[in-house]
Design brief:
Elements lengths: L8 E5 L5 H14 L4 E6 L2 E6 L6 H6 L10 E5 L3 E2 L6 H11 L5 E5 L4 H4 L2 H18 L10 E8 L2 E7 L25 H11 L5 H4 L5 E5 L5 H8 L3 E5 L6 H4 L4 E4 L12 E6 L5 H13 L3 E9 L5 H18 L4 E6 L7 E8 L2
Parallel strand pairs: 6-7, 9-10, 9-12, 10-11, 12-13
Antiparallel strand pairs: 1-3, 1-4, 2-3, 4-8, 5-8, 7-8, 13-15, 14-15
Helix pairs in contact: 6-8, 10-11
Length: 356
């Protein structure tokens, strides 16, 4: 049957515990595109499968990965396979043959769980034999449009094969950016801002957009995890917080620590950056950031929105719609992006860059 050989499913990875939110996001895009789908999920992943058995490719392409919030990876996937422990490779080879897929590389991936990590030894043992067989059959080859085969192992005897395409995927294994925590940073929250820069700013633009001698404000700065990142880039920082800042960080001479309320403080002049990781209701943080952006007090902003326990997708959607509406009414043109980062927990990170 055709439905057994074409990718009918849209498979995404997500942070464990956020399956409902990732699924709600996928269902939102499916509804926008008027595609009827059947949902399924497991720990750290969710998928939608077309009810009519047609390929998922159009929906997968139109709901571009860089616009998704809760997805760590986005794949057009074939039906899941149950494997025999005596012969795990043959079903995989047969399904690839039936799909007529060709690709330039193979990634073996697992859910971001302890059970997933426990599959590493099995995957390592199967990697080389599978690559050898697929090369002989011509499926794994040098020039295949940059396509990548993802073999997603949910269990030792269950996999799902997915395809990713250049420009519409994460280029990280499991969609996870692992960063080393700097020993001198005052808090582990420093990794949130570093990951956000990697996520939202092309690496070749860092020297221009995260430049030496720029000026930034860190609202809710103490003890200085985010300020530390700004200082490392050579920026001068207004650290706004009633709490104490790290003494070694203050010794750099690049910080003006003002014991004021981050929600009401106003900068003395236009700044290059606003960053904010204040723990408060999303709507309150959003109102403060909107004031900065509509008055053009900064050129770029990165801020976190703390999420409720339930209906997190709905809350994020509402906040982003409010932000877009506020900027539009103020005739402020901007690029807005939002992502649930690996180093985030119960929050999402938003990046805004004014165009003028």
């Amino acid at each position: 049957m055709v439905s057994e050989t074409v990718p009918t499913s849209w498979l995404v990875y997500c942070r464990p515990g956020f399956e409902h939110d990732a699924l709600s996001e996928l269902q939102h895009h499916a509804a926008l595109n008027e595609v009827n789908c059947v949902p399924s999920y497991g720990e750290g992943w969710v998928s939608l499968t077309r009810s009519d058995g047609e390929p998922i490719n159009d929906l997968h392409r139109q709901a571009a990965f860089n616009r998704l919030i809760f997805a760590r990876q986005s794949l057009a996937a074939l039906p899941a396979l149950a494997l025999s422990r005596d012969d795990r490779l043959t079903p995989v080879l047969e399904q690839i043959k039936a799909s007529r897929w060709s690709f330039e590389e193979i990634w073996h991936e697992t859910p971001d769980t302890n059970d997933g990590k426990a599959l590493a030894g099995l995957i390592k043992a199967l990697t080389r034999p599978l690559e050898s067989m697929l090369k002989k059959r011509g499926a794994l080859r040098r020039k295949a449009g940059g396509r990548r085969l993802h073999i997603f192992w949910t269990e030792g005897d269950r996999v799902q094969l997915g395809m990713s395409f250049p420009g519409n995927r994460s280029e990280l294994i499991n969609g996870i950016r692992r960063l080393r925590s700097p020993s001198r940073a005052p808090s582990r929250s420093t990794l949130k801002l570093e990951e956000a820069w990697h996520e939202f700013i092309p690496r070749e633009e860092w020297d221009a957009r995260l430049a030496d001698h720029m000026q930034a404000a860190d609202l809710g700065a103490a003890p200085g995890g985010w300020t530390w990142q700004l200082v490392q880039r050579g920026m001068y920082v207004y650290a706004i917080d009633n709490g104490p800042m790290d003494k070694q960080l203050m010794a750099t001479g690049q910080i003006d620590h003002l014991k004021e309320d981050g929600f009401t403080w106003e900068p003395p002049q236009r700044l290059d950056w606003l960053v904010c990781d204040i723990v408060d209701k999303p709507v309150r943080v959003l109102a403060m950031v909107e004031r900065w952006l509509t008055r053009k007090w900064c050129r770029e902003a990165i801020f976190n929105l703390k999420l409720p326990m339930k209906k997190r997708w709905e809350e994020v959607s509402r906040c982003l719609a409010m932000l877009e509406n506020s900027l539009s009414q103020a005739s402020v043109s901007a690029d807005i992006a939002c992502r649930h980062l690996y180093h985030d927990r119960e929050e999402v990170t938003v990046h805004v860059r004014l165009k003028h």
